[in-house]
Specification:
By secondary structure, this protein is an alpha+beta fold. It has one domain. The protein is 32% helix and 24% strand. It has four helices and ten strands; from the N terminus they run αβββββαβαββββα. It has a five-stranded mixed sheet, with helices on both faces. A three-stranded antiparallel sheet has the order 1-2-5. A two-stranded antiparallel ribbon has the order 3-4. Helix 3 packs across helix 4 (255-262). The longest helix is centred in the first third of the chain and has 54 residues, at 14-67. The relative contact order is 0.14.
């Protein structure tokens, strides 16, 4: 009598399936946050690399200007896509008497008629007649000229950050700019960032009481470029601040820190 062989097909038991599901759940709980963090870390690295490259680029630009003898005329460095050297400040003779009083105003020296010293830092590819005429397109020119080939994409924001009353308003302005452009960075201008003009005061007449009569440097509002990183739409807290008039470059990972920096005098403390 021939025995018939029966093949039995075995599957997973309920216990085995439960174990597999539990393992998949554990892996998802531990691995997914890491993948999410990798995305944020990649954006952090991209921003930091851009900020570092921009800082280095502006320093190299000024080094080339120094190597040329620090010219105080209309100077264009072709190696940086024709970026012009920013002029410095000159005392307003109608409002400034060096020996007796502080200036009540300090005027911008136009690019076409230097009578003060240049800052040595780039500010535009076109001659800008007044501080008020400086805009976000000029900031885009600086960004592109300094970083050159391979630079992140950038767009000029139509609004300034002047009306931003706090950190939340800064983030809102960036979000609004993102809807108009998908660029990696949005270029803003804030026209009233306080800078050190380099002119010394012998008193604080018209500025503040100074009983000691000790000297300090005069401050003035001037436009500065704000480059907001917008490639990560959920995070609007990465910024580069650049002032062409004194070469100030700083990066921030908080809108609150940026807002404080924009409204704080960048110069020697009052004695």
């Amino acid at each position: 009598m021939q025995m018939q062989r029966v093949n039995k097909q075995q599957g997973f038991t309920i216990i085995e399936l439960v174990v597999v599901i539990l393992l998949l759940g554990i892996l998802a709980a531990t691995a997914l946050p890491r993948f999410i963090d990798v995305t944020t870390q990649a954006h952090d690295s991209a921003f930091e690399a851009t900020a570092g490259g921009f800082t280095t680029g502006t320093a190299l630009y000024r080094a080339e200007w120094v190597a040329r003898g620090q010219p105080s005329t209309d100077t264009s460095l072709a190696s940086y896509d024709g970026l012009l050297v920013a002029p410095g400040f000159a005392a307003d003779s109608a409002n400034y008497t060096a020996a007796t009083a502080a200036p009540t105003a300090s005027v911008y020296v136009q690019q076409t008629a230097f009578s003060g010293r240049a800052s040595g830092y780039p500010y535009a590819t076109e001659t800008v007649a007044t501080l008020a005429a400086y805009d976000s397109d000029d900031c885009v020119a600086v960004f592109s000229g300094i970083l050159q080939t391979g630079a992140p994409t950038i767009a000029a924001a139509t609004a300034t950050l002047d009306a931003s009353g706090d950190a939340a308003a800064v983030r809102t302005a960036v979000e609004t700019a993102q809807t108009a452009s998908a660029a990696d960075f949005q270029a803003f201008v804030r026209t009233n960032v306080q800078v050190n003009t380099g002119f010394q005061n012998n008193s604080d007449v018209g500025v503040a009481a100074n009983a000691s009569g000790a000297a300090r440097n005069h401050q003035q509002n001037a436009p500065a470029c704000i480059y907001a990183y917008s490639a990560e739409s959920e995070n609007n807290n990465r910024f580069i601040l650049y002032s062409p008039w004194n070469g100030r470059v700083a990066s921030y990972t908080s809108a609150a820190d940026l807002y404080t920096a924009m409204t704080t005098f960048d110069g020697p403390a009052v004695p």
